[in-house]
């Protein structure tokens, strides 16, 4: 397909183009496009509402072979991870379900194979998806408050999720400072087989980092460190450097996998350099934290930091293979 | 397709089955599954938060021939109409965009035709969709606060929308009383050609009906009066009767069309019988209101009211043709 139908280099470029003229900070919106969640003013200066929407689509985020409970779990936990990435506590969620018609009898359109479609739309399949949703909601403190269904050509689940912070402000991507250290929770890479379905959102960890003012900037790693760290750097209008050797890797992951597999759903955050010892001392969660690099002032004369030539890139949903 | 893959008579039956074991009124959720919006407790007893998600899907809610500005407009206005149906004021919205790949090169799956796919994914198409979204948002007082994209096999737009009521409680479907009169705003039927794309959500009307305590129950008509009125009756555990002759119809709509076309997005509401004259006197909006029937106590011994034999049914997304 020629490029004139897709003049966007990446998902980020597409969003930038489409939302360029949006009035993003109207009304009670404090942070709009460009962070993990939208941030809205709450009922007092110490209260902020977080608002997030996230979708999993058949064959993009899971396959017909994925256990349906894990499809439901993943859909919810992805959205919860974005609330965690701002240091928030999740609240109510709504579910939108796209349901292919059994047999795919949509005359105007190509039909999905009957077998696959029937599987996605069977009662037991849907019940298991919802059980996964419900279990993950209970685990994360989310209230499932309703939703709706639509006929669709492929099975999908969209989650709209509210969250909040009280007593401290949500941590953004855009507030890292030159010299801040760069950290990740847990280990990265080799996520495709099962980890992308079974991960636990870093809720308590994110809340601790935000409430204790350790994190100067934070996000979750959904598209790989190689893609998400440049997003944090650009949002903060800074440069950054990584010490590749220090990046904590999951078993079976080489450096490339740790940088680019994506769907790690670990927290990526920055802290002031003089709080590193205190953070290590007070860290009391089962998952590890590792310092992997440092933010730097961006080079003068450049509009935004770009990864160096040898940078290992992450995952882009819209990029042509 | 045999019924064993779809043991649900309708969209309503599917939702009932899937959400039967949900803890729907956990946390700050006041009303969960089963109304136009979820209702959450606000920052004071006089404040309620409304939360809604709604999707438009290519070939289900619009076609390749639909002007893209109207696709964006419809997506937003559908969700706003549900806020209006509870008497609320809309706030921030998030957009989830499903984007087919140009050329449809998804090897494991049937490809949509290149021409259609390219159209849906062209830069100008997307810009026009977003312009429609933005214009409708400005018109309805909605703040577009962000969103995300996913690759998908068909183009879709999901809207997650927040709203609120202050100083009065949201009007539910479930609070009609025996003897209450049944009303609709505007005219019904013959919506398919253009009206389903260009309607104006009845925001001011809904707020007036709620704030002045006229409406004892309310919802918007999305699947046709013939399907939505039974929903209101069942939610209120009442029966109802319609005077078919009084139903206000759009030009070109016969009674069947007025009952079953769907996507009218007019308000359907009930009032106490002794406030009818006051309502008529104080109604100051350009659109009309018409009394079309009356709620009745349900027949004893029946679990829920069912439409009579000769009832003209509305639209069900999931029903087999």
- C-alpha geometry of chain A: globular
Helical residues, percent of chain A? 25-40%
CATH superfamily of the largest domain in chain A: PurM-like, N-terminal domain
Summarize the helix and strand pattern of chain A as letters. HEEEHEHHEEEHHEHEHEHE
Number of E-state strands of chain A: 11
The assigned CATH architecture of the largest domain in chain A is 2-Layer Sandwich
Query: How many domains make up the 3D coordinates of chain A?
Result: 2
Overview of the molecule:
The structure is a homodimer of 321-residue chains. Chain A is α+β, with helices and mostly antiparallel strands and 321 residues long. Chain A has two domains: 143 residues, PurM-like, N-terminal domain (60s Ribosomal Protein L30, Chain: A, 2-Layer Sandwich); 143 residues, PurM-like C-terminal domain (Phosphoribosyl-aminoimidazole Synthetase, Chain A, domain 2), CATH 3.90.650. The first copy, chain A, has nine helices and eleven strands. A six-stranded mixed beta sheet of chain A has the order 1-2-3-6-4-5. In chain A, strands 8-10-7-11-9 form a five-stranded antiparallel beta sheet, with helices on both faces. In chain A, α2 packs parallel to α4 and α2 packs parallel to α6. The longest helix of chain A has 18 residues. The first copy, chain A, is globular, with a radius of gyration of 20 Å.
